[in-house]
Amino acid sequence: MQKGPAQTSDHRRRTNAHLLIIAALGVVASMAVALMVTAAPTRTTTETVRFVISGDQGNMAYSPTNITVSADALVTIIITNYDTQSHSAPPLAQQVSGTTGGVAYYQFSLNAHTQSLGQLASSDISHTFSVDYGSTWLNVPIPPAASPTNPSVTTFTTSFSSIGTYTWYCDAMCGSLPMTPPGEMAGYVHVVK
Ligand SMILES: [Cu+2]
User: Fold this and answer.
1) Ligand 1 mean position to 114 CA, how many Å?
2) How close is the Cα of 62 to the center of ligand 1, in Å?
3) Which CATH class is domain 40-192?
4) Is the pLDDT of residue 38 over 80?
5) Cα(151) to centroid(ligand 1), Å
6) The pTM of the whole model exceeds 0.85
7) What percent of the chain has pLDDT above 90?
8) How confident is the model at residue 180 (pLDDT cuts 50, 70, 90)?
9) Distance 119 CA to ligand 1 centre (A)
10) H/E element, 8
């Protein structure tokens, strides 16, 4: 008879321990992001840009299409991807390039811990965020969503030093139709003073 309440409180203790672990992982993830920002060259401004990629049913598209950032600002780009499909990407597009530290920070699903990686395997790539920018090629492969309601989240920092308009595009083989015209898998980065 007394076993019931004892088991309940034991279960509660275990649940509390799980919550503590999840909280600790959250702290470690925020520290990783803090380190990433402090390790970067000193910039006068920091800006954050958020993209969402819609998934499946042939409606793969980045939103928004066009972004505006300040020249020399340290720009943090956060891409939330709801597309569960992998689309193969050429070898160069599997590498992270042009970001602070040459890495991107990946959460393969919500509540998963954040991993800092310099490349993804082709089979783990859903789309890429790529910009030809002077002699720099900014390229970040984006992993697929874990499920239609559980997106992957990719975060990286970069900066654009020259004022101008540059095209961003997806370099994965996600289908010829979404690639053109700009608006789904391509758009513009306006770099302003
Ligand atoms: Cu794509």
Assistant:
1) 22
2) 8
3) mainly beta
4) no
5) 15
6) no
7) 62
8) low
9) 17
10) helix 3-39
CB neighbour list of residue 160: distance below 8 Å, 6 or more residues apart: 69, 71, 72, 73, 75, 133, 166, 189, 191
Side-chain half-sphere CA neighbours of 144 within 13 A: 20
Number of C-beta neighbours around residue 37 at 10 A: 14
Distance of CA 173 from the midpoint of ligand 1 (Å): 7
- In the chain, domain spans: 40-192
Given a contact cutoff of 8 angstroms between Cβ atoms, the answer to whether 153 and 62 are in contact is no
Long-range pairs, 31-35, Cβ under 8 A, ≥24: 32/105, 32/114, 32/116, 33/105, 33/114, 33/155
Nearest to 126, CA basis, from 64, 172, 95: 172
pLDDT at 5 over 50: no
Rounded to the nearest whole angstrom, what is the distance from the C-alpha of residue 41 to the centroid of ligand 1?
A: 30
CB 141 within 8 A of CB 125: yes
Ligand 1 centroid from CA 80, angstroms: 13
Q: How far is the CA of 185 from the centre of ligand 1 (A)?
A: 5
What is the whole-number distance in angstroms between the Cα of residue 61 and the centre of ligand 1?
Answer: 7
Q: Is the peptide bond before 64 cis (omega within 30 degrees of 0)?
A: yes
86 CA → ligand 1 middle, Å = 10
Q: What are phi and psi of 144, to 5 degrees?
A: -70, 165
